[in-house]
Amino acid sequence: MKPRIVIIGCGGMGRAHAKALLGFGGFELVAASDLMPEPRAAMQKVAGSIQLYDNTEQMLERERPGLAVVATASKFHRDLVVAALRAGAHVLCEKPFSVSLAEADEMLAIARETGRMLLVDHQFRINPRVLAPLRFVREGSIGDVLSMRCAGKGRHGGWELVETGTHLFDVAMLFGGAPRWVCAEMLVKGRRATADDIVDSRTLGHLATGPVVGERVHATIGFENGALLHAEFCDVPSTNFVNVFGTKGTVHVPLGVAKAEPFFCPKTFVNPNDPDAKWQPLPVEWGKWGQEHNIYTYDLWAQWLADPKSKPMAVHGKHPMDAENGRLSMEMIHGAFESHFQGGNRIALPLPQRDHPLARRMRKETTK
Protein backbone atom coordinates (compact mmCIF):
# COMPACT_ATOMS: atom_id res chain seq x y z
CA MET A 1 0.00 0.00 0.00
CA LYS A 2 1.32 3.44 -0.93
CA PRO A 3 1.89 5.97 1.88
CA ARG A 4 -0.98 8.46 2.13
CA ILE A 5 -0.02 12.10 1.68
CA VAL A 6 -1.89 15.41 1.93
CA ILE A 7 -1.07 18.95 0.84
CA ILE A 8 -1.71 21.95 3.08
CA GLY A 9 -2.11 25.03 0.90
CA CYS A 10 -3.60 24.94 -2.61
CA GLY A 11 -1.82 27.96 -4.06
CA GLY A 12 0.74 27.85 -6.83
CA MET A 13 3.32 25.89 -4.83
CA GLY A 14 0.71 23.48 -3.51
CA ARG A 15 -0.43 22.74 -7.05
CA ALA A 16 3.18 22.30 -8.18
CA HIS A 17 3.63 19.70 -5.44
CA ALA A 18 0.43 17.98 -6.52
CA LYS A 19 1.68 17.71 -10.10
CA ALA A 20 5.01 16.31 -8.89
CA LEU A 21 3.29 13.77 -6.64
CA LEU A 22 1.02 12.61 -9.44
CA GLY A 23 4.02 12.34 -11.76
CA PHE A 24 5.99 10.38 -9.16
CA GLY A 25 3.21 7.95 -8.31
CA GLY A 26 4.92 6.48 -5.25
CA PHE A 27 2.58 8.16 -2.75
CA GLU A 28 -1.21 8.26 -2.67
CA LEU A 29 -2.31 11.90 -2.76
CA VAL A 30 -5.60 11.77 -0.86
CA ALA A 31 -6.50 15.34 0.10
CA ALA A 32 -5.57 19.02 0.20
CA SER A 33 -6.71 21.96 2.29
CA ASP A 34 -6.96 25.72 1.90
CA LEU A 35 -9.02 28.40 3.63
CA MET A 36 -9.90 30.10 0.33
CA PRO A 37 -12.28 28.64 -2.29
CA GLU A 38 -10.35 29.91 -5.34
CA PRO A 39 -7.15 27.92 -4.70
CA ARG A 40 -9.21 24.84 -3.83
CA ALA A 41 -11.00 25.13 -7.18
CA ALA A 42 -7.63 25.46 -8.93
CA MET A 43 -6.34 22.38 -7.09
CA GLN A 44 -9.42 20.43 -8.19
CA LYS A 45 -8.36 20.98 -11.80
CA VAL A 46 -4.91 19.55 -11.06
CA ALA A 47 -5.95 16.60 -8.89
CA GLY A 48 -9.63 15.98 -9.49
CA SER A 49 -9.93 12.76 -7.49
CA ILE A 50 -8.71 14.07 -4.12
CA GLN A 51 -10.80 15.33 -1.22
CA LEU A 52 -10.63 19.09 -0.59
CA TYR A 53 -10.99 20.74 2.81
CA ASP A 54 -11.30 24.29 4.12
CA ASN A 55 -10.09 23.14 7.55
CA THR A 56 -6.60 21.63 7.90
CA GLU A 57 -7.09 20.12 11.35
CA GLN A 58 -10.26 18.43 10.15
CA MET A 59 -8.38 17.04 7.15
CA LEU A 60 -5.58 15.66 9.32
CA GLU A 61 -8.05 14.08 11.74
CA ARG A 62 -10.17 12.44 9.04
CA GLU A 63 -7.46 11.40 6.57
CA ARG A 64 -4.76 10.32 9.06
CA PRO A 65 -1.97 10.81 6.47
CA GLY A 66 1.49 9.38 6.90
CA LEU A 67 2.99 12.42 5.17
CA ALA A 68 2.05 16.07 4.76
CA VAL A 69 3.33 18.87 2.53
CA VAL A 70 3.04 22.39 3.96
CA ALA A 71 2.97 24.64 0.90
CA THR A 72 1.74 27.92 2.34
CA ALA A 73 3.59 31.20 2.88
CA SER A 74 6.12 30.97 5.71
CA LYS A 75 4.02 33.15 8.03
CA PHE A 76 1.73 30.14 8.49
CA HIS A 77 4.34 27.37 8.64
CA ARG A 78 4.75 27.07 12.40
CA ASP A 79 1.11 26.28 13.24
CA LEU A 80 0.55 24.00 10.25
CA VAL A 81 3.80 22.06 10.61
CA VAL A 82 3.15 21.51 14.32
CA ALA A 83 -0.41 20.34 13.62
CA ALA A 84 0.81 17.83 11.01
CA LEU A 85 3.61 16.53 13.25
CA ARG A 86 1.19 16.16 16.18
CA ALA A 87 -1.15 14.24 13.88
CA GLY A 88 1.63 11.71 13.27
CA ALA A 89 2.72 12.78 9.78
CA HIS A 90 6.21 13.21 8.41
CA VAL A 91 6.36 16.75 7.01
CA LEU A 92 7.89 18.44 3.98
CA CYS A 93 7.74 22.20 4.52
CA GLU A 94 8.14 24.80 1.79
CA LYS A 95 10.86 27.38 2.10
CA PRO A 96 11.60 29.79 3.73
CA PHE A 97 11.33 27.45 6.72
CA SER A 98 10.01 30.02 9.18
CA VAL A 99 9.52 33.70 9.91
CA SER A 100 11.64 33.60 13.07
CA LEU A 101 14.38 31.37 14.43
CA ALA A 102 12.24 30.79 17.52
CA GLU A 103 9.61 29.18 15.28
CA ALA A 104 12.26 27.05 13.58
CA ASP A 105 13.57 25.92 16.98
CA GLU A 106 10.07 24.94 18.09
CA MET A 107 9.24 22.97 14.94
CA LEU A 108 12.51 21.03 15.13
CA ALA A 109 11.95 20.27 18.82
CA ILE A 110 8.47 18.90 18.12
CA ALA A 111 9.80 16.81 15.22
CA ARG A 112 12.32 15.24 17.62
CA GLU A 113 9.62 14.76 20.26
CA THR A 114 7.21 13.05 17.85
CA GLY A 115 9.92 11.07 16.04
CA ARG A 116 8.77 12.37 12.66
CA MET A 117 10.89 13.48 9.72
CA LEU A 118 10.78 17.24 9.13
CA LEU A 119 12.23 18.36 5.79
CA VAL A 120 12.48 21.73 4.07
CA ASP A 121 12.00 21.77 0.30
CA HIS A 122 15.51 22.89 -0.61
CA GLN A 123 15.32 20.66 -3.65
CA PHE A 124 18.36 22.14 -5.39
CA ARG A 125 20.77 20.40 -2.99
CA ILE A 126 19.64 17.04 -4.45
CA ASN A 127 19.23 18.24 -8.05
CA PRO A 128 21.58 16.67 -10.62
CA ARG A 129 22.56 20.13 -11.91
CA VAL A 130 23.99 20.93 -8.46
CA LEU A 131 25.31 17.45 -7.69
CA ALA A 132 27.49 17.43 -10.83
CA PRO A 133 29.59 20.48 -9.86
CA LEU A 134 29.54 19.37 -6.20
CA ARG A 135 31.18 16.05 -7.13
CA PHE A 136 33.63 17.92 -9.35
CA VAL A 137 34.67 20.18 -6.47
CA ARG A 138 34.85 17.37 -3.91
CA GLU A 139 37.12 15.42 -6.23
CA GLY A 140 39.60 18.29 -5.96
CA SER A 141 39.17 19.43 -9.55
CA ILE A 142 39.24 23.13 -8.66
CA GLY A 143 41.65 22.73 -5.73
CA ASP A 144 40.83 24.31 -2.38
CA VAL A 145 37.64 26.37 -2.27
CA LEU A 146 38.54 30.03 -1.74
CA SER A 147 35.26 31.84 -2.10
CA MET A 148 31.80 31.86 -3.64
CA ARG A 149 29.50 34.42 -5.18
CA CYS A 150 25.75 34.27 -5.58
CA ALA A 151 22.95 36.52 -6.79
CA GLY A 152 19.17 36.55 -6.71
CA LYS A 153 16.65 36.91 -9.50
CA GLY A 154 16.50 40.70 -9.53
CA ARG A 155 13.58 41.51 -7.24
CA HIS A 156 13.32 43.65 -4.10
CA GLY A 157 16.59 42.86 -2.32
CA GLY A 158 15.30 42.43 1.23
CA TRP A 159 12.45 40.21 0.16
CA GLU A 160 14.68 38.15 -2.10
CA LEU A 161 17.28 37.72 0.65
CA VAL A 162 14.57 35.74 2.46
CA GLU A 163 12.80 34.06 -0.44
CA THR A 164 15.70 33.22 -2.81
CA GLY A 165 18.56 33.54 -0.35
CA THR A 166 17.31 30.48 1.52
CA HIS A 167 18.04 28.37 -1.60
CA LEU A 168 21.34 30.05 -2.44
CA PHE A 169 22.69 29.86 1.11
CA ASP A 170 21.62 26.21 1.36
CA VAL A 171 23.58 25.35 -1.81
CA ALA A 172 26.58 27.36 -0.56
CA MET A 173 26.69 25.16 2.55
CA LEU A 174 27.33 22.14 0.31
CA PHE A 175 30.61 23.76 -0.78
CA GLY A 176 31.55 25.64 2.39
CA GLY A 177 30.17 23.66 5.32
CA ALA A 178 28.36 25.26 8.25
CA PRO A 179 28.14 29.08 8.40
CA ARG A 180 30.14 30.78 11.15
CA TRP A 181 29.53 34.53 10.68
CA VAL A 182 27.87 37.12 8.47
CA CYS A 183 28.17 40.83 7.77
CA ALA A 184 25.86 42.85 5.54
CA GLU A 185 24.64 46.21 4.32
CA MET A 186 21.23 47.12 2.93
CA LEU A 187 20.45 50.17 0.81
CA VAL A 188 17.33 52.14 -0.07
CA LYS A 189 17.65 54.77 -2.81
CA GLY A 190 21.42 54.63 -2.44
CA ARG A 191 21.50 55.25 1.34
CA ARG A 192 21.76 52.85 4.26
CA ALA A 193 18.36 51.49 5.22
CA THR A 194 16.91 52.54 8.58
CA ALA A 195 14.22 51.07 10.80
CA ASP A 196 11.73 53.38 9.04
CA ASP A 197 12.41 51.43 5.81
CA ILE A 198 11.31 48.06 7.26
CA VAL A 199 8.13 46.84 5.58
CA ASP A 200 5.93 43.78 5.69
CA SER A 201 6.70 41.61 2.65
CA ARG A 202 3.04 41.65 1.65
CA THR A 203 3.17 45.41 0.97
CA LEU A 204 5.55 44.57 -1.89
CA GLY A 205 2.98 42.30 -3.52
CA HIS A 206 4.93 39.22 -2.49
CA LEU A 207 4.34 36.26 -0.17
CA ALA A 208 3.93 36.65 3.58
CA THR A 209 7.52 36.03 4.67
CA GLY A 210 7.57 38.58 7.48
CA PRO A 211 9.34 41.97 7.73
CA VAL A 212 12.03 42.82 5.17
CA VAL A 213 14.26 45.81 4.45
CA GLY A 214 16.52 47.07 1.68
CA GLU A 215 16.06 47.48 -2.06
CA ARG A 216 19.64 46.27 -2.44
CA VAL A 217 21.35 43.79 -0.13
CA HIS A 218 25.05 42.92 0.00
CA ALA A 219 26.21 40.22 2.43
CA THR A 220 29.38 38.26 3.14
CA ILE A 221 29.24 34.94 4.97
CA GLY A 222 32.13 32.95 6.40
CA PHE A 223 32.00 29.14 6.46
CA GLU A 224 33.74 26.50 8.51
CA ASN A 225 36.14 25.49 5.73
CA GLY A 226 37.44 29.07 5.48
CA ALA A 227 35.60 29.97 2.29
CA LEU A 228 33.63 33.22 2.00
CA LEU A 229 30.33 33.75 0.18
CA HIS A 230 29.62 37.16 -1.36
CA ALA A 231 25.86 37.46 -1.88
CA GLU A 232 24.01 40.19 -3.74
CA PHE A 233 20.28 40.76 -3.99
CA CYS A 234 19.63 43.86 -6.08
CA ASP A 235 16.47 45.22 -7.62
CA VAL A 236 17.84 44.81 -11.17
CA PRO A 237 17.40 42.02 -13.76
CA SER A 238 19.46 38.95 -12.85
CA THR A 239 19.45 35.18 -12.59
CA ASN A 240 20.15 33.11 -9.49
CA PHE A 241 23.38 31.15 -9.38
CA VAL A 242 26.32 30.19 -7.18
CA ASN A 243 29.88 30.50 -8.52
CA VAL A 244 32.59 28.59 -6.63
CA PHE A 245 36.21 29.79 -6.94
CA GLY A 246 39.07 27.43 -6.13
CA THR A 247 42.83 27.53 -6.32
CA LYS A 248 42.72 25.63 -9.65
CA GLY A 249 39.57 26.88 -11.31
CA THR A 250 35.95 27.99 -11.11
CA VAL A 251 32.57 26.28 -11.37
CA HIS A 252 29.26 27.90 -12.22
CA VAL A 253 26.22 26.34 -10.50
CA PRO A 254 22.89 27.44 -12.03
CA LEU A 255 19.74 27.43 -9.94
CA GLY A 256 16.10 28.06 -10.74
CA VAL A 257 13.91 26.09 -13.11
CA ALA A 258 15.64 27.23 -16.31
CA LYS A 259 17.44 24.39 -18.08
CA ALA A 260 20.88 25.94 -17.70
CA GLU A 261 24.03 23.83 -17.45
CA PRO A 262 26.83 23.93 -14.87
CA PHE A 263 30.22 25.00 -16.26
CA PHE A 264 33.89 24.69 -15.30
CA CYS A 265 36.76 27.04 -16.10
CA PRO A 266 40.40 26.09 -15.35
CA LYS A 267 41.07 29.65 -14.14
CA THR A 268 40.22 31.42 -10.89
CA PHE A 269 38.47 34.83 -10.84
CA VAL A 270 38.46 34.62 -14.61
CA ASN A 271 37.90 37.60 -16.89
CA PRO A 272 34.82 36.73 -19.01
CA ASN A 273 36.53 38.32 -22.04
CA ASP A 274 39.62 36.15 -21.66
CA PRO A 275 39.91 34.10 -24.90
CA ASP A 276 41.82 31.44 -22.96
CA ALA A 277 39.13 31.00 -20.32
CA LYS A 278 37.87 27.82 -22.03
CA TRP A 279 34.60 27.37 -20.14
CA GLN A 280 33.50 23.75 -20.39
CA PRO A 281 30.06 22.29 -19.62
CA LEU A 282 30.05 19.77 -16.80
CA PRO A 283 28.20 16.53 -17.66
CA VAL A 284 25.04 16.10 -15.60
CA GLU A 285 23.87 12.59 -14.73
CA TRP A 286 20.12 12.96 -15.00
CA GLY A 287 18.13 10.24 -13.24
CA LYS A 288 14.93 8.59 -14.37
CA TRP A 289 12.98 11.82 -13.76
CA GLY A 290 15.04 13.89 -16.19
CA GLN A 291 14.68 17.60 -15.49
CA GLU A 292 11.42 17.27 -13.54
CA HIS A 293 13.33 18.58 -10.54
CA ASN A 294 10.44 18.55 -8.02
CA ILE A 295 9.97 14.79 -8.40
CA TYR A 296 13.49 14.07 -7.10
CA THR A 297 12.31 15.32 -3.71
CA TYR A 298 9.61 12.67 -3.49
CA ASP A 299 11.73 9.89 -4.94
CA LEU A 300 14.40 10.42 -2.27
CA TRP A 301 11.80 10.76 0.51
CA ALA A 302 10.22 7.46 -0.55
CA GLN A 303 13.63 5.75 -0.44
CA TRP A 304 14.25 6.95 3.11
CA LEU A 305 10.82 5.82 4.27
CA ALA A 306 11.02 2.43 2.55
CA ASP A 307 14.43 1.59 4.02
CA PRO A 308 15.47 4.03 6.79
CA LYS A 309 18.74 2.16 7.34
CA SER A 310 19.95 2.77 3.78
CA LYS A 311 19.93 6.59 4.17
CA PRO A 312 20.76 7.53 0.55
CA MET A 313 22.58 10.86 0.18
CA ALA A 314 22.72 11.24 3.97
CA VAL A 315 24.64 14.20 5.44
CA HIS A 316 25.99 13.36 8.90
CA GLY A 317 23.40 10.60 9.11
CA LYS A 318 20.48 12.90 8.27
CA HIS A 319 18.31 13.37 5.20
CA PRO A 320 20.01 16.01 3.00
CA MET A 321 16.87 18.20 3.16
CA ASP A 322 16.57 17.88 6.94
CA ALA A 323 15.04 21.00 8.49
CA GLU A 324 18.26 21.61 10.42
CA ASN A 325 19.67 22.93 7.13
CA GLY A 326 16.58 25.08 6.67
CA ARG A 327 17.23 26.62 10.05
CA LEU A 328 20.88 27.28 9.15
CA SER A 329 19.74 29.18 6.06
CA MET A 330 17.50 31.30 8.27
CA GLU A 331 20.45 31.91 10.64
CA MET A 332 22.37 33.48 7.74
CA ILE A 333 19.41 35.56 6.57
CA HIS A 334 18.57 36.91 10.01
CA GLY A 335 22.27 37.36 10.74
CA ALA A 336 22.45 39.63 7.68
CA PHE A 337 19.58 41.76 8.96
CA GLU A 338 21.18 41.91 12.41
CA SER A 339 24.58 42.87 10.97
CA HIS A 340 23.14 45.75 8.98
CA PHE A 341 21.54 47.29 12.04
CA GLN A 342 24.77 46.86 13.97
CA GLY A 343 26.62 49.00 11.43
CA GLY A 344 27.74 46.13 9.21
CA ASN A 345 29.61 44.39 12.04
CA ARG A 346 30.51 40.72 11.75
CA ILE A 347 27.80 38.68 13.51
CA ALA A 348 28.65 35.25 14.91
CA LEU A 349 26.31 32.35 14.14
CA PRO A 350 24.15 30.88 15.53
CA LEU A 351 22.36 34.00 16.74
CA PRO A 352 21.77 34.22 20.50
CA GLN A 353 18.48 36.11 20.03
CA ARG A 354 15.85 33.99 18.31
CA ASP A 355 13.17 36.58 17.54
CA HIS A 356 13.14 38.35 14.16
CA PRO A 357 15.81 41.12 14.08
CA LEU A 358 13.55 43.43 12.07
CA ALA A 359 10.45 42.81 14.16
CA ARG A 360 12.52 43.70 17.23
CA ARG A 361 13.52 47.04 15.70
CA MET A 362 9.98 47.77 14.55
CA ARG A 363 8.82 47.29 18.15
CA LYS A 364 11.50 49.69 19.37
CA GLU A 365 10.36 52.34 16.91
CA THR A 366 6.71 52.06 17.98
CA THR A 367 7.57 52.38 21.66
CA LYS A 368 9.57 55.60 21.28
Shape: globular
Sketch the major β-sheet.
10 strands, mixed
- The radius of gyration computed from the alpha-carbon positions, rounded to a whole number of angstroms, is 21 Å
- Write out the CATH superfamily name of the largest domain: Dihydrodipicolinate Reductase, domain 2
Helix content: 25-40%
* Individual helix count: 11
**Low-pLDDT regions:** none
Strand element count: 18
Summarize the structure.
The protein folds into 2 domains: 4-121, 3-Layer(aba) Sandwich (Rossmann fold); 125-288 and 326-362, Dihydrodipicolinate Reductase, domain 2 (2-Layer Sandwich), CATH 3.30.360.10. The protein is 35% helix and 22% strand. It has helices at residues 12-24, 37-46, 56-63, 77-86, 101-114, 128-138, 157-163, 165-176, 293-306, 323-341, 357-366, and strands spanning 4-8, 28-33, 51-53, 67-70, 90-93, 118-120, 145-151, 179-188, 191-192, 199-200, 211-212, 216-223, 228-233, 241-246, 249-254, 263-265, 280-281, 347-348.
Written account of the structure:
With 368 residues, the protein is an alpha/beta fold. The protein folds into two domains: 4-121, NAD(P)-binding Rossmann-like Domain (Rossmann fold, 3-Layer(aba) Sandwich), CATH 3.40.50.720; 125-288 and 326-362, Dihydrodipicolinate Reductase, domain 2. It is 35% helix and 22% strand. It contains eleven helices and 18 strands. The protein has helices at residues 12-24, 37-46, 56-63, 77-86, 101-114, 128-138, 157-163, 165-176, 293-306, 323-341, 357-366; strands at 4-8, 28-33, 51-53, 67-70, 90-93, 118-120, 145-151, 179-188, 191-192, 199-200, 211-212, 216-223, 228-233, 241-246, 249-254, 263-265, 280-281, 347-348. Strands 7, 8, 9, 12, 13, 14, 15, 16, 17 and 18 form a ten-stranded mixed beta sheet that branches. A six-stranded parallel beta sheet has the order 3-2-1-4-5-6, with helices on both faces. Helix 1 packs across helix 9 and helix 5 (101-114) packs antiparallel against helix 10. The longest helix has 19 residues, at 323-341. The protein is globular and about 60 Å long. It starts with a strand and ends with a helix. 47% of the residues are buried.
